[in-house]
Records
---
Amino acid sequence: MVNVAILGFGTVGSGVAEVLTGHESSIERKADGLIRLKYILDVRDFPDSPFADRFVKDFAVIENDPEVDIVVETIGGAGVALDFTRRALAAGKSVVTSNKELVATHGYELNQLAREKGVCYLFEASVGGGIPIIRPLSQCLAANEILEIYGILNGTTNYILTRMIRAGLSFDAALAEAQEKGYAERDPSADVDGHDACRKICILAAIAFGRHIYPEQVPTQGIAGVTLADVDYAESAGKKIKLLGRAIRREDGKVCAYVAPHLVDQANPLAGVEDVFNAISVRGDAIGDVMFYGRGAGKLPTASAVVADVIDVARNMGHRKALSWEPGGEDAACGTDALASRWYVRAKAPVDALRSALPGCKLLARREGGGDESACLTGSPLTQGELEQALAGLECRSVIRVLD
Ligand code: NDP
Ligand code: HSE
């Protein structure tokens, strides 16, 4: 029998308890033995929970119980979660987590500690919620040199954009719905400002390209500046606006990773990814393009990924499942300065001013008319610096990359 302790009985932790106990017999078959939920640690009391008898308040109870084999960390953040994870690994227990902030900031160190102790540190749920992506990337695509990864990595912002466009909800109303459904981070600005997607692209880049990329090395922009006017103009050009995380391996080995809204062509499968769904596209030198799609957040989809990791550890008890990469450093990542693309530009300017600033651009029109502003797509790929130079003197209201 394998004993599990869950740290943090919130959206994900309670989902893990539900799935682990609800599917007990099929999980026992798949894990080659019984998996017992022995403890749940939370700061709050849950007297009405069916698991009320398993709650503890002191992590030392779990840490010092030799029967506990696997610790599931679903508290979140890089504070107490880091302390508990280090202590669990140091005590020889495997750790499974959905906490992308911790993996993105301390993943290298925690992997090393797991390696030293001969235990596992697994985090399938940290990217893409229920979508299998970490294991496929590290195992099924292992034969490839990965060239690029990009995708919709945040369910909350995709949900907000979808609800604003489809149901005409205000930004705040759409965010409130996402929070009610348990999709949003404790501080939802982590979703809205792109930091959550940033942490996820760091994790994917580390696995794909073999070095730790830290969140502060990744230029990050969220959806706060995206307006319904931009959505309309994008639609008139046959495109949708999506918040993407992207990591590209350059020829010099550096990784160009960033998070920003993009105009995505309607013909690209990413354009059809709506609500809380995520989609991640991976380009390998042998396989070409492969895409992963599914629910990117929420209690049970995320629990599905966490419990799969628990089963994996239980089935391979005593054998370390290694996921590791090299340390990061200033030479691991580069900014987006050299990355040329076409751009969408909306400016308070007459069309002639845009035309002369951006020769060859394609002017856009929206149903309501443009008022005092004009919008266009640039004709040829430009770096951000080249674009800024061309637009100097114009009052730009929105500048968004085009994914070509
Ligand atoms: P929640 O806030 O719902 O759950 C966290 C739980 O941990 C809460 O019950 C919280 O209690 C408790 N907690 C806080 N501090 C402590 C502590 N010191 N000791 C014990 N328990 C504590 O978060 P989620 O379940 O949404 O997210 C958990 C992690 O999973 C995060 O890293 C998140 O980014 C990640 N994740 C979330 C997904 C989702 O869809 N929600 C999807 C994928 C990943 P209290 O509320 O009283 O503070
Ligand atoms: N807040 C995150 C999201 C949870 O909305 O994608 C899943 O990681």
---
Amino acid sequence: MKVTNLSHGSFIIDFCGKRLLIDPFFTGNPKASEIDVEALNPDWILITHGHGDHVSDVENIAKKSGCKIISNYEIVNWFGSKGVEGHPLNHGGKFTFDFGTVKYVNAVHTSSMPDNSYGGNPGGFVVWNDKGCFYIAGDTALTMDMQLIPLTCPALDFAILPIGDNFTMGYEDASIAAEFIKCDNIVGCHYDTFGYIVIDKDKARKSFESKNKKLFLPNIGETIEF
Ligand code: NI
Ligand code: MN
């Protein structure tokens, strides 16, 4: 599994021959000027919640690449009204796609759409097949529900957790989340994009080290492999 950091909460994950684009936010993102949006060409777009810093480029990329989206029912309907096709999930539900199984799991956050319409409840995704398993937390606080993930899903190879604080959990809470989900390899996201969420990266790494976890902070555009 190859994970490319596209800044903020945006990633592309090469998973068994399919390209999964997570929460594309390039338009209006001060850190995304180097991203070649045309070259992303995803097979699926996974959307954790409706906020603009997670959906700003869904419509243009989906229409260009012809890919479908996976998100909660309300978000899939909202994009459906714009001519983007998708598969709706809701919390606790899973479905097996052409690349593997996706389960939509709880997040503690909010989820209005860019036009302020209702975006359902925010979530995260656990994605797996017989080659591997990973968790994308989306924007969330630390929550006890994270302890359900190792009880209900295969063992995680890696997880993408927000660490920027202010709008989501900070790195201290995220290192506890790594324990709750029983995952040793954490990719940090949702930090340094704008002023409220600038972090001390050394302190963040040490917070995870203190729990015998590894925090990966790939540069924007950098790919790491699990
Ligand atoms: Ni958000
Ligand atoms: Mn966000």
---
Amino acid sequence: MPTPVPPPALPPTIAWRGGADGHLELLDQTRLPHEQHVLEIHSVEQAIDAIVRLCVRGAPAIGVAAGYGLVLGVRNASPGAAAFLDVVRDVAGRLTASRPTAVNLKAAIDRCVVAVAAEPTLERLFREVQAIHAEDVESCQSIGQHGRDLVKAGATVLTHCNTGRLATAGEGTALAVLFAAWRAGVRFRVLANETRPLLQGTRLTALELAAEGIPVEVIVDGAAAGLIARGQVNLVLVGADRIAANGDFANKVGTYGLALACAAHRVPFYVAAPVSTFDLEAASGDAMPLEQRDATEVLTLGGQVLARPGLGARNPAFDITPGRLVRGFITDLGVLEPPFVPVIKTMLSARR
Ligand code: MRU
């Protein structure tokens, strides 16, 4: 395996500068790995644009970014509690619609709306968003600690999409587990699915793992099942965008196929996600909205058009994996194992 050249340190994925009258900074992930460009976001329109274009992405990260977007969108509301709450509800609706699958975004916005309903001030809203931001950093840390013993010395771990610092406000979810194991002295290697169409694996995951010194090779998504079948993968570790009450979960398109291959060949398949990714309102995967993105993403690569004019394409950004294919959920509160219905219910009620 070639020795990777360590990439330069990255600026924070998300940062807020100043008080409630300040601004949001987002590392523009569409330009990685070649360019480190930090976007200055001063309005909710700019925040929504950055979320829709995937300048900021990953379920927990878009929850935090949307919270700050709400601050930007309501801070010039007319005086008076009723006028303030009207604007909050309007802006909250626009932010929630910007990316429908990751429940962290909706949960963050709903939590802010509840907070300001009790105390309708910008300061209260800002405090709530800062709390969501800080809690995400802590959740990532805990996920890493709870999951790290699942990674064994000498293992080859396969992962999909990007679930690291670039997908959260902290160390990540599935990648936080790998970072924690590596720092505990466990030596392993990683296969990163490239994750077509937008190549989060090649552009982002490989960058983050190399920065930590973890050996990583990229594979095309279609290679994964064959490598799993031939015994070349010991553990598959992915993140989640929304987890239903029965353990079905939505994640980047391609996750379901990985889970099927793992079940067929008895390879452990684990999902790392914070409690904020669980959605008890969804009884199963059937209740989850799946984002459909523009066909252009499939028909182009790095801006280059691949197909003849007129060719159609389907671009579901996520798929649903049934909970029965999951060996366990690595959460900030511990590792959950089947049967998921009672276990998830107990965990979420203990949290409230
Ligand atoms: O479309 P993206 O890049 O936002 O998709 C991200 C994923 O699917 C991640 O696996 C998921 O958000 C969990 S990462 C913390």
---
Amino acid sequence: MKAIPIKPDLYWVGAKDWNLRDFHGYKTQRGSTYNAFLLLDEKVVLIDTVKSYLCEEMMTRIRSVVDPAKIDMIVSNHVEMDHSGSLEAVLHLAPAAEVLTSVHGEKGLQAHFNTSGWNLRAVGNGEERSTGRKSLAFFHIPLVHWPDSMATYIPADKVLLPNDAFGQHIALGSIFDHESPLDVVMQEAAKYYANIVYPYGSQVEKALAALQGLDFNLIGPSHGIIWRRHHQLIMEKYKQWARHDHEEKAVVVYDTMWGSTETLAQAAQAAFEDQGVPVIVRSLKHSHISDVMTDVLEARYVVLGTPTLNNGMLPTLGAFMTYLKGLKPQRKTGFVFGSYGWNPQALKEVEEILRGLGWELPEPAFNVKYRPQAGDVQKLKAAVAALCRRQTNEKKGEQA
Ligand code: FEO
């Protein structure tokens, strides 16, 4: 294992977590990568580390170009342990190294480690530090996605290292975008945004505005591939996602007990197709909530179905609604459907959460007693058609 050069005297020294399948509840079917970077200037600088169980992989890569005891500075862009988990191990070898972090980062590191013997220093927003021939500049990007989040910029190399921003949970044989399947990488970038960054759209917009003025041609996030050729593409996508822009697409999310709600979900699918709206149907028995959130990210219409069980929604939809509420997608058009035996309560709960998110619910909840009959299926299709027509009419009104 070796350090991989990404610019003159700047190396990738991260680690690949091939077997990771769960990142605190986010399904990572393609594993993940923790990206750390090593600058060999007059000062030796390590920018971020890796999860503790992959420390030796990072150390091996560092040792391939320099003795880790020679590290003068460690930049901690983010306290979370997937990036700071090997800090103590590095400081064990280089105890005098200065640890640079944001103001919130300093507090976070003090909460996670015994930092009493550390040479720990908080850097201000925009502060620059010389490393000899080059320099580092630090930009605070709070809540993208923790209060301490920071980006490190190397002007001489035109390199931006923004930690979690623009990342993807993926482990590939390559580390660069132009050597990777771009559609897969973009899909994982969307999943990462939908599951990690989604609640912080306004903070992302502020961060983008601050970083956009910098002259860079490479973005090295802390997860996944490095954007060397497509950095503008991912910046544009982040702008779109931060604005909560959507496309004329639908996602139907449901679970079912005896098949009634599933029949309605199929009817909703047919109705969207009839209206020419691309639709994805996700049964929560078969799809993970983190994958469903990726579908939600760019969809205008999010349609949710559940029967009533014990006076409420099915627990699978309950888990999804909790997740959705926390991730706060905005500017969606919702519609709720389901079935019940004697107490039609579940849909009220679902609608209450969607109203709390500020979603539009132009059509009333559609609830069927026991089994949907042919007429019910037609009524549901008519409701979905009305939902789509309403949007089309609104668009025409905007253009007039
Ligand atoms: Fe990749 Fe917020 O840690």
